[in-house]
Please model this.
Amino acid sequence: MAGALGWARGCACVWVVVCGCGRDPLAIETGCEELSPGDVVITEIHANPDGSDGQGEYIELFNASGGVLELQGLTLVSSREDGTGASEHRFGESQIDADDYFVLGNAPPESLPAYVDYSYGNTLGNLRNSKAALSIRCGETVIDRVGYASTRDGRALELDGRLTPDSSSNDDAGHWCVAPETAPEVSPGNFGTPGSPNSACGEALVDGTCIEDGARRPIDVLEPGEARITEWMANPYGADDDLEWVEVLFTESADLNGVRLGASSDALGAPSFDDVCFPVGTGTRVVFGASPAAAPRVDAELNFSLRNTGERSIVVAVGDTILDRVDYVGSEEGVAWQVDPDDVLCLVDAAADYEYSDGNFGTPGESNPACAPVLEEGMCFDGDTPRPIRSPSTGQVQITEWMANPSIVGNREGEWVEVYFATAVDLNGLVWSDLTTRSATIEREDCLSVPAGGFAVFARNPHRDENGGIPFVDAELGISLNNVDEAISISVGGEVLDSVSYEGSRPGVATQIDEWGFVCDAITPYGDGDLGTPGAPNRPCL
Model:
């Protein structure tokens, strides 16, 4: 195996004349024109090291040319499977002996593992774990290219060691496999054969089976209803391509093998863990992430994009059998969607303590909190529980007193109306109207309840220190009261419950109706000195 002049901090220097970071911006010859397609073969890819990918990634090349090859001027390209999102590295001075292997890694030159010959530093970023491609180019000439659908944590992808490495055999996905149980452990938790002949891929996949402890057994297949999509981050604060995730709750023990996720039943991703058994227990929450950085814990690769706007769906399936589906509309940046224990769909409460990373809120891998109750029309909250609003009907409501012309404070602060209710009711939805057809509705989410035989006070200003000292205000009065020639009514659902009219009013004196229906001026002081009995029975008119 030949030596190499590696890169430091992601940049390479060709002797002392030209330096480049990923691409050479100068119009110079590549220096690799003598290489032909197939001279260099990609034979092993470790894109998904155990734990955080960090600096443990590597790529193995093989010299199939029959002679010593100079790599200087070649370009290494990492991209999505369709070629988009490409990152590049331009080789510095390096060579491979005939029929030998050459290992490239992302660790800095000063800390390269013994099995890595050359550092491409951070020029490629993290290699993609699924739906990705690697290629070697000389200018516009492709020397070799390999696409791969998925990877397995801690195990390299290897071209079958029983084959002679060439650029045709490595085009067939069936000639690749994850490093088997017998592969060497090259670093803690990571298995492969960098710089050495590859492992022989095991027996061909057998439908409906997986390998556990070196033996093949039937997959414990999930059935519909045994996997539920419970949470997803469609619009993370940060890069969507790296930070999206989906949480799936498994309600029965089974194998994850063959599980597929997608935006519809017609757009499902590649099956997960096809060969090595991946059992999950009852109650396990599996987090599928776009990258290891997507959530505090990522268990498997998310190989499709969730999108942020419009009507969207997420489907989880085994083969073509749909296990669960959720539908949602739009998203809020940094806030996950969730399905709570009562199967209610909502956005996670960003005001609560559910921030799992800077600017992102959710509970990936953890139990979901209950969604806040949503009020339907005609409902109000009785404590924390929604219930139907108890609206009064005609004959149950009487306007019994009103202050149209306060003197201690101005009209805007001191006006009020008192109403008697013969039965227990809620004030929610009641509508006040005046002679000019102005109206105001009592709109509150919590139930504004009045007991049977009780009085409710509606005031322009609910603050006692500003409204002349009204002892208690039940709801706001959204209309103003003229001092003369006025009519006011209270209604619900278009039905007038009661109304009164008056020709005038005395300053600082409320007008009252006693229990026999007589109308007169109030004589009892309240609050700061005006006369009236807001919220209390009226004195008889003499």
Confidence is low (pLDDT under 50) at residues 1-28. The domain at 397-521 is CATH 2.60.40 (Immunoglobulin-like).
